Each structure stands twice: as structure tokens, then as C-alpha cells.
């Protein structure tokens, strides 16, 4: 979807933004779940960066991602097994998982996302595809599958940061602040 600014279109009842930083502050949290908080988001971000390089000869200054996670084959699980998986995975309040209406709406989405990740096949390249540095974040209780995978796709430096928490470690304000400050520090190097 495109960005919808306050005071326009579907947001016409909201007050207009007072400055550009307010707009950016609204966009960044909306992007985080898409490109950071899901295994699917990491793959989308990587393929987007690769497509930008191949089609437009452009690469991001720095690539931030999650490690590849162990994704269960949700399509083979019953609704009760998916519910149990969600409870063990963490991050989703139990009362939402226990709500049959909400759960029945979420399961097709989860299964579709899991199927996309499971069907994604990417062979290790013979040479680096990207050149920028890559920083990976993951929760201390996350089910990390492949810690070294990013080193195969870039000629840049790859580093990692384990933050306290599970798959939803970004919900912790301290972790969000750490990542924000780290990203700012990395990108400031390019400005200088």
C-alpha cells in the first residue's frame, strides 16, 4: 500500500502533520513489522534489495535483518496444533489465541505466510550478490535456524546482535531503542 498522510484520503478526519519528522515517525513503526519482525519480512527486504541492484544499480547503504527462523509446516497442523504453536511462540496475548473468531481469521494468514517462506528456495551464490554491510538482530529466545546465511550473499561485513526476548523482542521498548540508535549510528557513517 502507498503512504497515506494524515488529513488526506482515508485519513481525512485526522489533523495534518506539522512537520516532515512527524510523518517519518509515523512511517517507521508501520514498516518495522513488514521488514523486520517476520521471517517473511526479511526475505522480502533481501529480495527487494537484490531487485534494486539488478534493475536500477542501487543498493541500500546498510541492510538490517533478522536471522532465518525455523518455520513450522503450519499447513500440516490442525487448528489446535497451530494454537499450541502460537502459545509457545510468544508475543500474542493468550486471550486473543483463545478467541475462536480471531484465531479462525489468523490461521489462514499464518499458513499463507509460512507456505511462502517454506517454498522460498535460494541457492547459496558462488559470489556475493550485495556489497553493503548487513546487521542481523534476533531475540535470545528466538528459534534461529541459520546464523551464517547472510555472509554468503554480501562482500560487506556481517554482524549480529542478540537482544533479550522471543520472536517479538521488538515489542520491548529497550530493544526498539537499541535498534534505532544502532541504525542511526550505522547510517551516520555514510553521511560523514
TrEMBL record:
GO biological process terms held by the UniProt record: fatty acid metabolic process; lipid biosynthetic process
**Sorted alphabetically, which Pfam families does this protein's record hold?**
Thioesterase
Coiled-coil stretches? none
EC number assigned by the record: 3.1.2.14
Q: Which GO terms describe its molecular function?
A: fatty acyl-[ACP] hydrolase activity
Q: Which residues form the Thioesterase domain?
A: 3-185
Domain of life, source organism: Eukaryota
Quote the InterPro entries the UniProt record gives.
Answer: AB_hydrolase_fold, TEII, Thioesterase
Q: Which family does it belong to?
A: Belongs to the thioesterase family.
The protein's name is: oleoyl-[acyl-carrier-protein] hydrolase
Origin species, per record, is Myodes glareolus
Amino acid at each position: 500500500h502507498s503512504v497515506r498522510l494524515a488529513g488526506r484520503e482515508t485519513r481525512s478526519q485526522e489533523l495534518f502533520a506539522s512537520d516532515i519528522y512527524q510523518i517519518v515517525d509515523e512511517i517507521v513503526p508501520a514498516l518495522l513489522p513488514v521488514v523486520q519482525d517476520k521471517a517473511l519480512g526479511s526475505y522480502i527486504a533481501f529480495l527487494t534489495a537484490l531487485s534494486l541492484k539488478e534493475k536500477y544499480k542501487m543498493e541500500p547503504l546498510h541492510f538490517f535483518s533478522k536471522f532465518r527462523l525455523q518455520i513450522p509446516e503450519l499447513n500440516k497442523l490442525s487448528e489446535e496444533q497451530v494454537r499450541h504453536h502460537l502459545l509457545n511462540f510468544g508475543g500474542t496475548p493468550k486471550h486473543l489465541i483463545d478467541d475462536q473468531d480471531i484465531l479462525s481469521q489468523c490461521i489462514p494468514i499464518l499458513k499463507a505466510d509460512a507456505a511462502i517462506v517454506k517454498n522460498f528456495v535460494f541457492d547459496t551464490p558462488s559470489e556475493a550478490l550485495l556489497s553493503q554491510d548487513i546487521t542481523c538482530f534476533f531475540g535470545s529466545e528466538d528459534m534461529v535456524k541459520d546464523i551464517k546465511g547472510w555472509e554468503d550473499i554480501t562482500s560487506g561485513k556481517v554482524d549480529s546482535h542478540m537482544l533479550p526476548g522471543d520472536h517479538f523482542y521488538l515489542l520491548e521498548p529497550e530493544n526498539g531503542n537499541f535498534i534505532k540508535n544502532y541504525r542511526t549510528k550505522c547510517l551516520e557513517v555514510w553521511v560523514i
